[in-house]
Specification:
The N and C termini lie far apart (about 60 Å). About 20% of the residues have low confidence. By secondary structure, the chain is mainly alpha-helical. Helices cover about 60% and strands about 0% of the residues. It has one domain. The relative contact order is 0.11.
């Protein structure tokens, strides 16, 4: 009896990944790239941006209810490369109110929810498009699938943000309509 056959590890099936056609964007998919849980990584990044210690949906929801730190506005602004006024407009917080919240150190619950909505979109865009630079550019440029509007502007309401998230899902699946 051949003992080598018994002690050898089984050979893993490997599938060669096709090369993208010229001019196509390569989209990394966490399931196929061997990365950890996509959802866990997204919550980790959301948590990092909004300044919470533990990254689970429950802890983030709890943080939204008490109000996220106002410093999250500055972090998000720097991550996305937008002005305070642009971000204030997207999250529907008047600039003066936002300045006051930054001085006070904490956003209200409703404001926190809108900021987290934009954070989640940006994190998802970064994951799907492969870099923060690409996500920034995509979020600030008109998209045909959104009626020629910029995703950042379109996401100023919950239904608009949901449509932007759906568009990102279609991009991830290779549906560019």
């Amino acid at each position: 009896m051949n003992t080598d056959a018994l002690t050898r590890k089984p050979r893993q099936n490997r599938v060669a990944s096709p090369r993208p056609a010229a001019g196509m964007i390569t989209i990394r998919h966490p399931v196929f790239s061997g990365a950890g849980s996509s959802a866990a990584r997204q919550w980790d990044e959301v948590s990092r941006i909004i300044g919470t210690k533990k990254a689970t949906p429950i802890t983030i929801i709890d943080q939204i209810k008490i109000g996220i730190p106002a410093s999250a506005i500055r972090v998000l602004q720097m991550q996305m490369g937008v002005t305070t006024d642009q971000l204030a407009s997207t999250v529907n917080i008047p600039s003066r109110t936002l300045s006051r919240r930054i001085r006070e150190g904490r956003l209200r619950s409703d404001e926190s929810e809108r900021v987290v909505r934009i954070v989640r979109l940006f994190v998802r865009a970064t994951e799907i498009l492969g870099s923060k630079d690409r996500a920034r550019q995509w979020m600030r440029n008109p998209q045909r699938a959104l009626g020629g509007q910029k995703p950042l502007d379109y996401a100023d309401t919950e239904p608009g943000a949901e449509e932007v998230m759906n568009l990102l899902g279609r991009l991830e699946q290779g549906v560019f309509a």
